[in-house]
Amino acid sequence: MEIKLREYQNQDFNELVNIVRETWQYDKVCNSKTANKLAQVFLSSCLTNYTFSQVAVLKDKVVGIILAKDIKQHKCPFKNRIKQLLAILSLYLTKEGRKVSKIFADVSQIDKQLLKNCTTPYSAELSLFVVSSTCRNTGIGKVLFQSVIEYMNRQKLNNFYLFTDTSCNYGFYEHQGMIRRYEKEHNFIVNNQLTKMNFFIYDYLCNNTYKKDKS
């Protein structure tokens, strides 16, 4: 299996929207049209928040992406911000879109509180990491994660953090040496049912002497 890594390109957007939509199971909380809009809002928001990108391509098909941000060097391109705003506007045009967008707002507030609890001055953030379900447990996730570590060390960034939750395979980050710093439980009402989730902030201390795993 030959995996190719390259920088994010605009034509990757729709394929990545589908991966995001499937990974976070948006179709379980709303209709398919709104689920697609939710995924567009999430992805376009992440694309306002990076200085480093790597897309995993397998047999000419996009199967994953990782984004990281050097906090001091980050400047969001105007076109990315416009794309984000248009995606948000499209979501808010429907009653269901406005309803489910509250979940995004709640998660954003939880993330802010988790980061506020950390007294560490972070150099960087891992702002998006997602791999298609068809390619999980194949090593693609590890390859993408290692690309971020190499980027951090090239840039001499001391540490980075990420947000995750129980809807994801958060154990992966612990296997890669990340430390869980804080967590918060939150209850959502989804389709008139109570859904309990835990949200986490993890961080990683870079040593700037990382060597690529040859195995």
Describe this structure in words.
By secondary structure, this protein is α+β, with helices and mostly antiparallel strands. Helices cover 39% and strands 28% of the residues. The protein is built from six helices and seven strands; from the N terminus they run βααββααβαβαββ. It has a seven-stranded mixed sheet with strand order 1-2-3-4-5-7-6, with helices on both faces. Strand 4, helix 5 (140-154) and strand 5 form a beta-alpha-beta unit. It is globular, with a radius of gyration of 17 Å. The two termini are 15 Å apart.
Helix and strand layout, with pairings?
Elements: E1 3-6, H1 13-23, H2 32-46, E2 52-58, E3 61-70, H3 78-92, H4 95-117, E4 124-131, H5 140-154, E5 159-165, H6 171-175, E6 179-190, E7 193-205
Parallel strand pairs: 4-5
Antiparallel strand pairs: 1-2, 2-3, 3-4, 5-7, 6-7
Helix pairs in contact: 1-2, 2-3
